[in-house]
């Protein structure tokens, strides 16, 4: 038997009222064999005050480490819009565009060919964002994030 372990993916990170938490069942930390954690961190990681529009002092500290490439930076433009703007049809479109931009690193890294984001108002300040990731014409990730608009990560949850 080899000492090399088979990669099991990232740690499974799920949303909670006090930010994301790893998932533990029966004392075992679950792994994420899909893109859930990567998508979650891309949309809700980084500094919520950083719009990503210009270089500024609000970037997440991890983005300033030596050797970090553009595709490794977490900016979370989507979170910035959901937290800072009122929910209007125009701002929902901005949020969809921001979500695609936050996830475009997957295309740059060759993991995906296309990212689709579709947002829907579900009631007063209730919002759903559907993310679909396509590679070679096949959907490799499809998930919907439900949240309270303007309450950001504290109001979000993952539906699978």
Head-to-tail CA distance between termini: 35 Å
Q: Counting H and I runs of at least 4 residues, what is the number of helices?
A: 4
Radius of gyration: 16 Å
> SSE order in H/E notation?
EEEEEEHHHHEEEE
Shape: globular
Q: Assembly type of the shown chains?
A: single chain
Strand pairing plus helix content: what structural class? alpha+beta
Please outline the major beta sheet: 4 strands, antiparallel
Spatial order of the strands forming the largest sheet: 7-8-9-10
Stretches with pLDDT under 50, minimum 5 residues = 1-7, 152-160
Helix content: 10-25%
Share in β-strands: 25-35%
| Number of structurally distinct domains | 1
Number of strands: 10
Average pLDDT score:
79
Provide the descriptors you would attach to this structure in a database record.
160 residues; alpha+beta; 4-stranded antiparallel beta sheet; two-stranded antiparallel ribbon; 4 helices; 29% strand; disordered N terminus; disordered C terminus
Can you walk through the features of this model?
There is one protein chain. The chain is built from four helices and ten strands. A hairpin with a 6-residue loop joins strand 2 (13-14) and strand 3 (21-22). It is globular and about 40 Å long. The longest helix is centred in the middle third of the chain and has 15 residues, at 89-103. Helix 2 (77-84) runs antiparallel to helix 3. It has helices at 36-44, 77-84, 89-103, 105-108; strands at residues 10-11, 13-14, 21-22, 24-25, 28-29, 31-32, 114-123, 126-135, 138-148, 157-159. The chain has one domain (10-159). It is an alpha+beta fold. Residues 1-7 and 152-160 have low confidence and may be disordered.
């Amino acid at each position: 038997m080899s000492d090399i372990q088979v990669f099991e993916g990232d740690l499974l990170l799920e949303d909670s009222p006090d930010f994301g938490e790893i998932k533990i069942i029966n004392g075992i930390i679950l792994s994420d064999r899909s893109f859930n954690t990567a998508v979650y961190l891309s949309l809700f990681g980084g500094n919520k005050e950083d719009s990503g529009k210009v270089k500024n002092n609000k970037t997440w500290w991890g983005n300033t480490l030596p050797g970090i490439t553009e595709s490794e930076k977490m900016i979370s433009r989507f979170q910035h819009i959901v937290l800072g703007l009122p929910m209007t049809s125009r701002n929902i479109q901005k949020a969809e565009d921001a979500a695609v931009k936050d996830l475009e690193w997957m295309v740059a890294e060759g993991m995906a060919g296309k990212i689709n984001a579709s947002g829907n108002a579900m009631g007063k300040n209730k919002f759903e964002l559907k993310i679909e990731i396509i590679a070679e014409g096949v959907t490799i990730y499809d998930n919907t994030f439900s949240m309270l608009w303007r309450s950001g990560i504290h109001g979000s949850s993952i539906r699978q």
